[in-house]
Write a structure and sequence with these properties.
Blueprint (H helix, E strand, L loop, with lengths): L2 H10 L9 H10 L6 H8 L3 H11 L13 H23 L7 H22 L8 H10 L2 H9 L11 H15 L3 H11 L4 H8 L4 H4 L4 H18 L9 H8 L3 H11 L1
């Protein structure tokens, strides 16, 4: 199906898109001001303990290797930077809207997304496109947001996600079939409605379609390739990887041997 038609079909199917929430909206508004620094961004989330706590947890994670542990939202934001701060806030705001959904499925989904984001960030730092690392991290955290949206409409399928990372993609494909919908289109709609960067929205929309990804502009295309590579490091040599391997090596310069080394380093 034409992707524009597919997006419209998802909207027409009765899917309800989540609203961003006041804490994320305040942060997004502050981040839109080029003169705003960590102090202003911290003030924007000061009344949202979930986002504040998430920022501190992420900033203290081994992925970012902090020299000293951040003790406040402002210190965490200083270390993470604007885009990774928005990424953490967006995923936290979306996760908090999982109330009423199957806890085990939602926990598995967000744990897998967080792991994919960490690995996508790490692999991007090993390519000539290091400047995309923060944006790719944001896209990786949000790439499967559409799954949570579809589960809200069809909670009986949550058992598909009582799984480990490597089974997530199979569950997502099964969910699309069983609901007659498409989690990538739903995720694109969430990203677009939350006013995430255009290249992030486009990469999410194409993150299971290599042919579509290769037609995107430079940044969106590379982010889609990085998302696929992050999933490859998370899941191993899954069927999802087969059609991505050649374009990843051609554009990002990442051979299977290089990916195995990055995977060993990250573990």
């Amino acid at each position: 199906m034409n992707q524009d038609l597919l997006v419209e079909a998802v909207l027409a199917s009765g899917v309800v898109l989540p609203a961003p929430g006041p804490g994320f909206l305040r942060l997004q508004a502050a981040a839109a001001d080029e003169n705003a620094g960590p102090r202003e961004l911290a003030a924007a989330v000061s009344q949202d303990p979930a986002i504040t706590g998430a920022l501190l947890r992420v900033a203290n994670s081994p992925v970012f290797r902090p020299r000293s542990a951040p003790r406040s939202a402002q210190e965490a934001i200083t270390m993470l930077g604007r885009t990774r701060t928005l990424a953490t806030a967006a995923s936290t705001a979306l996760r908090n809207q999982g109330s009423g959904l199957d806890d085990k499925a939602i926990e598995a989904l967000w744990a897998a997304s967080a792991r994919a984001a960490d690995l996508t960030y790490a692999v991007c730092r090993a390519t000539p496109f290091k400047g995309l690392a923060d944006t790719a991290y944001l896209a990786a955290l949000m790439q499967d947001a559409g799954i949570a949206v579809l589960l809200r409409r069809a909670p009986e399928h949550a058992v598909l996600f009582h799984c480990t990372d490597c089974a997530l993609e199979a569950g997502a494909r099964a969910l699309d079939v069983l609901t007659g919908s498409d989690h990538t289109a739903a995720g694109f709609l969430v990203a677009r409605n939350w006013k995430l960067p255009v290249e992030v929205c486009e990469a999410i929309r194409a993150h299971h379609e290599p042919a579509m990804a290769l037609r995107l502009g430079d940044s969106a295309r590379r982010i889609a390739l990085l998302l696929a590579t992050g999933r490859r490091l998370r899941d191993g040599l899954s069927p999802d990887w087969t059609d991505w391997a050649e374009p990843v090596e051609a554009e990002l310069g990442l051979t299977e041997a290089a990916l195995d080394q990055i995977s060993a380093d990250e573990h």
